């Protein structure tokens, strides 16, 4: 075979399958250790916030607009997956500087290194055709599948961070966010938390949403507006935080709601039919009569070619009122513990991986298959 054929064969038979194996192992470990990981991250961010508060008190820093958690790619040469943490104000966002606040994600590196080691071992078979540096160059652009779990972990740690005294003491800008990315490159950062303290008028928000922009609402923070009886079919609200928003009778069929937070929202009779809502959070929302028919939100779904998992956590309905809501033919893993489930219609739904309280057994009507697929506590 020639070099191209050898490279294609190496990718197909070794690199891609091995990466999937290690990311799957990482995914499993993440699910088991996330509470400990989130606690470690919160400790590191606490130190960053304490330092920023001191800088603000000394007049050396203005209102904080961003906390960055950045992968130091050079750390891989030292055998670690190290992230640098920093708090910046508006003027220092474009400035790259080093800080002493570091988090070593050894739990990511061990799986990354196992993949790398296996590939290098198998590469010897192709030594007459493929040079080691060829794989090394390609590998440098393939960190996302592993780094992605740091993004997930910091996002999961946000509730812990928000209650830290140091975070609450930090003077924050009108638009504040936490971003996980790579040092020296602003273009690949992923926002894991965004809060906009500027209250926009209901009229301006409705006009903005009516434009049906494909990506502009992602990671946004929309709070305390009446969006009832509106038609937002197919809208992209991935990772959007809707806080105390009225969505009563609103049509949200076939929407993208990956990682979306509907926090204490009024969504009576809202229609989410056919929406994708992996990792969504409906905590404390009023959802009586809402339709979740045919929604897609299972856990542990993987894109094998890219080694990316969707559905890290069940959709969260803690404290939500789901009275007479419908989940007909839904494919959803939901955490229904602490939700009001009177009259919920689960006919034809695949509830594999869902969680419910034993005390709610008499309130829900389930098939034998559905009952056995649920984790009861």
Characterize the structure shown:
- Helices cover 32% and strands 18% of the residues.
- It has seven helices and 16 strands.
- It has a five-stranded mixed sheet with strand order 3-2-1-4-5, with helices on one face. Strands 6-7-8 form a three-stranded parallel sheet, with no helix packed on it. Strands 9-13 form a two-stranded parallel ribbon.
- A hairpin with a 4-residue loop joins strand 10 and strand 11.
What order do the helices and strands follow?
HEEEHHHHEEHEEEEEEEEEEHE
Structural class: alpha/beta
CATH class of the largest domain: Mainly Beta
Shape: globular
Overall mean confidence score, pLDDT: 96
Unreliable residue stretches: none
Strand order of the largest sheet: 3-2-1-4-5
Helix count?
A: 7
How far is the N terminus from the C terminus?
Answer: 57 Å
CATH topology of the largest domain: Pectate Lyase C-like
Roughly how much helix do the residues carry, as a percent range?
25-40%
Rg to the nearest angstrom?
23 Å
The appropriate CATH architecture of the largest domain is 3 Solenoid
Count of DSSP strands: 16
What portion of residues belong to β-strands?
15-25%
Major beta-sheet overview? 5 strands, mixed
CATH homology superfamily name of the largest domain: E3 ubiquitin-protein ligase SopA
